[in-house]
Amino acid sequence: MRKEIPVKEYLSLRPADLKKPEYRHVWLLLFWAIEVPLFFLTEKLPLARHVIYCALDDRIPFCEALILPYVLWFGCCVFVTVYTLLRDVPVYRRFLWYMIGTALVSFSFFLFYPSVFPGQPDPLPRQNFFAWMVSIVYGSDEPTNVFPSEHVIAALGMVFATLHSKKLRRPAFSIPFITLQLLICVSVVFVKQHSILDVAGGAALSLPGYFLFFFPWKKRLPWNDPETAER
Q1: Under a CB-based contact definition with an 8 Å cutoff, are residues 151 and 185 in contact?
Q2: CA separation (Å) from 208 to 25, 98, 194, 222?
Q3: In a domain, 60, yes or no
Q4: How many domains does the chain have?
């Protein structure tokens, strides 16, 4: 399996080339094209939602400054996807399959156990630049589909991808990047987009996701070997 494929080679691909085992992994990009609009669509569904809240949530203070790592999550997802697509295809495959597998479970919860978090402060206790960012997030992303937390699941997936990529796990990059991902996991409760229960649910789902998609199984699996389906 080739680990690196240059941008020029991707740009020169024709539709017929995507049938070749060497390039089939490109189809995995459809995950993001499907997952993002589907997430916001399910947020709008008129479902009877279960309140996700616990006493510990009341003890966690609102901290608008942590909206910064919260929104950086989106850029991190793009970075890890694009970087591994170009520089570490095996890790790209594992990361995207991890996202697909965990999304199937998450969306099952969103549809059959729809959830809502009622802890957003209204009005915001302070007015500053970070509070303005919080208001933008609140206006565009309703506190529904909260259990399990997609932010936590993807952030931990990016930690796994970093640790499994020889290029990404260099200390100069991996230490600050992994720290940012852990800060993202924390931020979701401090900006009051999630309950601590959502974080626990996301972390619990990420563990079997890791062992299924990142653990170095000796058996050939679709996310390990692009030629598996032909053998």
Answers
A1: yes
A2: 22, 10, 22, 17
A3: yes
A4: 1
**CB under 8 Å to 118, separation ≥6 — which residues?**
51, 53, 143
Verify cis geometry, omega within 30 degrees of 0, for the bond prior to 6: no
Rounded CA separation 38/22 (Å): 29
**Residue 24 · residue 226 · CB < 8 Å:** yes
161 part of a folded domain: yes
Q: How far is CA 166 from CA 67, 88, 137, 163, 173, in A?
A: 30, 9, 35, 8, 11
Task: Say if residues 70 and 189 touch (Cβ distance below 8 Å).
Answer: no
* pLDDT, tens digit, 9 for 90 and up, residues 161-192: 999 999 999 999 999 999 999 999 999 999 99
**pLDDT (average), residues 72-97:** 97
Q: Quick check: is 95 in a domain?
A: yes
Given this model, what pLDDT does residue 2 score?
81
Q: How far apart are CA 31 and CA 27, in angstroms?
A: 8
Pairing of strands 115-116, 50-51: parallel
Residue pair 180/151 in contact (Cβ under 8 Å)? The answer is no
Mean pLDDT of 213-229: 63
Q: What are the backbone angles phi and psi of residue 130, rounded to the nearest 5°?
A: -70, -35
Range of the domain at 70: 7-230
Q: CB–CB of 114/144 below 8 Å?
A: yes
In a domain, 1, yes or no: no
Distance in angstroms (rounded) separating the CA atoms of residues 124 and 214: 41
